[in-house]
Request: fold
Amino acid sequence: MTAYKDLSREELESLKAQLNAVYKEYQGKGLKLNMARGKPSNEQLDLSMPMMDIFDSSADLTAEDGTDCRNYGVLDGIPEAKKLMADMIGVKPENVIVCGGSSLNIMYDMIARAFTHGVLGNTPWSQLEKVKFLCPVPGYDRHFAVTEFFGVEMINIPTYEDGPDMDLIEKLVSSDDSIKGLWCVPKYGNPSGVVYSEEVVKRMAALKPAAPDFRLFWDNAYGIHHLYFDDIQEIPEILSECAKAGNPDMVYEFCSTSKITFPGAGISAIASSDANIASIKSMMNWQIIGHDKINQLRHVRFFGDINGMMEQMKKHADIMRPKFEAVCNILEEELGGLEIGTWSTPKGGYFISFDSMDGCAKAIVAKCKDAGMVLTGAGATYPYKNDPKDSNIRIAPSFPTLEEIKEATRLFALCVKLASVEKLLEA
Amino acid sequence: MTAYKDLSREELESLKAQLNAVYKEYQGKGLKLNMARGKPSNEQLDLSMPMMDIFDSSADLTAEDGTDCRNYGVLDGIPEAKKLMADMIGVKPENVIVCGGSSLNIMYDMIARAFTHGVLGNTPWSQLEKVKFLCPVPGYDRHFAVTEFFGVEMINIPTYEDGPDMDLIEKLVSSDDSIKGLWCVPKYGNPSGVVYSEEVVKRMAALKPAAPDFRLFWDNAYGIHHLYFDDIQEIPEILSECAKAGNPDMVYEFCSTSKITFPGAGISAIASSDANIASIKSMMNWQIIGHDKINQLRHVRFFGDINGMMEQMKKHADIMRPKFEAVCNILEEELGGLEIGTWSTPKGGYFISFDSMDGCAKAIVAKCKDAGMVLTGAGATYPYKNDPKDSNIRIAPSFPTLEEIKEATRLFALCVKLASVEKLLEA
Reply:
């Protein structure tokens, strides 16, 4: 293959005409493809349907400590649910609070309470002139949306193959006490697919923040969402790393079963130090009597323990892996050697991150849309939806069928080519 | 019976000795009674156990609009759940947002967002020097706790047989723009049992608040929790009353199935005007993708519609009514004519409100405790747990068995007598 940049103007014009002809054909097909959101497929959801058999009208809904899960009470989750969620992320159950179906809601609440009441006795953020968060990019749009909603100034941090730019983070965090947080997806990042290296995790844990209320918002959303169970990626456990580094209270970790059982109808958790957990509970106490314990018990009874959950994850991987491989293979087939895009080949998680030539991402997404294929909006992976290079696109291969994914990826590759040719012709 | 106030000192001393002897016997019994919290009894929870049969592993979890309840999406609830909750309170489904298991959490969120982002474009409350709420007393401790947590100044409003003191409310609300809210339990009040009269509801709806962001926090927690289905208490529907009075946006209404199905594992809702609902959704959008739709669908399938829910409420009433009547009958039997206490005889809800002689409530609760019976702390029904007269006690007869309730009420009456005698002897 000849790299597009090495093509003459005439060759580009001719290529553009060819590509446009194929594109017109796609437009005529009336396609309805969607690779926008990281939703499990129906086949994956079916894996959890036996959970609906777990209880019947004669079931005993008593937790192991004697709590009747049908009635009021238990702010931080039943013991067996705390254990299950703790095992998901390798922490102690006493450092876990189990909540409702949405870990995003926990993150929102943590930031909302930091604004209204402050973090561990520090000044509420609403009383500060400026609050800043560091945002490794590309990142998760809903993270950035929460901090944007609260008027937080977000600072882009580049992401490399081993995690975010730690030199820059260390410099900024230690010198600016208005920096209060750092959004992290440490494993199989959304959308980068990046797994933080041991060194990055340890440097994170050893940060010397200027702000005493600086926190890592450690969204371990994909901690066990491996695609290759013979090549599992592991990272050091962040709570104990922070403790070892003398920063026991510096991290809030989040996880959920949204992409293990049912999105929005699973259970979620926050893990943190003893002091943080005590503080969070003392504040949650004003907000809610307790989250849905029946659903907590249903999850525990369904999985038995973390081993049962890992068996379920293998089944998820068997469904997801061919889809990811199809995307990567077709991208390689269609775009390899053209030097008009690079992409991640993740070993887990929910996304493939694609980087086009600068200034092409919006055009690619628009072209896909005009041919019946929805992608996450270009820019969505950056704070304020502003990708300065207009190059990153998040591909979510989980929900469509394998056949749809193949078609969608070919269409996507076509749109990449077309947008790239047009860009080169503009020059 | 001779009223205690008419007894001589000698008679009181002799009575005290007799009562103390009986009290000592109670103390020897090793009782473990609890009339503290408004929890449904096991027998009531059993009514909803067939809900556990609603779904099995072959169930179709598709909502009527085609939404797969197992996956992400739907911020405001599936249509059939909106309809069910709307019918509970007599509003339109489009004015309802269905949330998770806890209406308290919705109230908390409404206040939290008012502090961080303001109400319908008004200044966020966190930027105001002073925010005040009017609090009809006696009232619900968890309402007062939320506003206390946010540093709101709470002002006591007396409650009469037809509702709160409207003259006082009208005067305060119209003259002080720092008054931003009014906590209401309009039907079968907690703990008063009071049902707002039509006139009170209409005067509420027609308030002329000085603050444009003043809101009624209308906690319709017991709207269908009748004890006597042949004597149902109805009140005007507040959303339409507010609209008629030219205050369409002045009310947030809350309800839940916590005391219909399973506390904390039911579904809850907020109802409000079109403008408020749009604003709430635009803010919720940053917080959560959607609440547990499987549980919403489970509830709808279990009840069918509001008629099915009302059938369930009749069964609850059949369990609750004898307990309430036992308490009231024993109080009458034990305390009638003694002029040392008055109590409500509610037609619905979860509580009986008892008013002792001034300055006796704490002593009564303490005496009960020393004989093995837990009551809600004296003062809990007032903001800052401060009952200026030290006279109100909330009795929750729902959870214990009928036999336990009878014993508990006799013990309670004994403690009332003893504390009253001691008080009179102090004089």
